[in-house]
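Quick question about two entries, pasted in order.
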Amino acid sequence: MFRLVIWLLLAYIGFRIFKSLVAPRQPSASKPARNDEETVQDPVCKVYLAKQDAIVGTLDGTRHYFCSMDCLDKFRDQLDHIH
């Protein structure tokens, strides 16, 4: 009886491995596709990032997009040195 259980367990594991190798891959549903998102460039470090992920700073009615608060602070420091 114990041998039968072992053989059934091995058959099940083999079936699962075979099924994972043969089945077509499904795209992950946990992360949505981001191909249609608008990208912006951080004016400090020049990194491109998704607009919705950016930190927004406004200067004279113009919106500037940053990748981090550090870049926003550097931008403000640069403006303080100019003015």
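Here is the second entry:
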Amino acid sequence: MLSACSVFQSAPEVVDTGPVEQPLPPPLLESYSEGLAMLQQLEEVGDEQERLQQQQKVLQYWQDLSSEYPQYPGIWTNLALNQYQLKSYEESLASLNKAQQINAEFCPAFKLKGMVQRELGQFNDAESSYLAAANCAPQDANIPYNLGILYDLYLGDLDKALVQYQKAQAMLSEPDETLAVWIPDLQRRTGADKADEGAESAEPQVAGE
């Protein structure tokens, strides 16, 4: 399980199912697991300079793996994640395109691709990628969360943003504090709160109540 950052640094997760969807040969499996551990350890590095140095090492690691085992979409997706973290968005998109050339339905690539395309200003493409990710990973709350951000801050569609934020909040086991602020704010800005009040007041009353 890997992680990347949204514009609000809420760390939506990217789940890499590469080894599951395409079993890796034993020599690669150990290297793959080591690479995943290196990516996860990056999250624990607080010093910015040290973190940058570690990211460069991890980048080289996944570049070497992609050269040695270019037939695995999970490797390209992990390389793309590291490139995303280094803000090398064009390179990250190229790696994701490699992953999808190998497997056009490789689900983890869609989610990360949406984030990369958003950074590149390709907002409509990002929407398509997020919708594809939501279709293949309907239980992943980070997808509607990020799609909501795209609608809210980049496409200016507040109604759609509200729907996605509410969907993400409903999917979480515990309410997200940030969404708990954003949702009522969008309800107020879109007038959805007034509509809800109107619907409640219009409900028929039972005689004697």
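Reply: The mean pLDDT is 85. Residues 48-68 form the longest helix (21 residues). Hope that helps.
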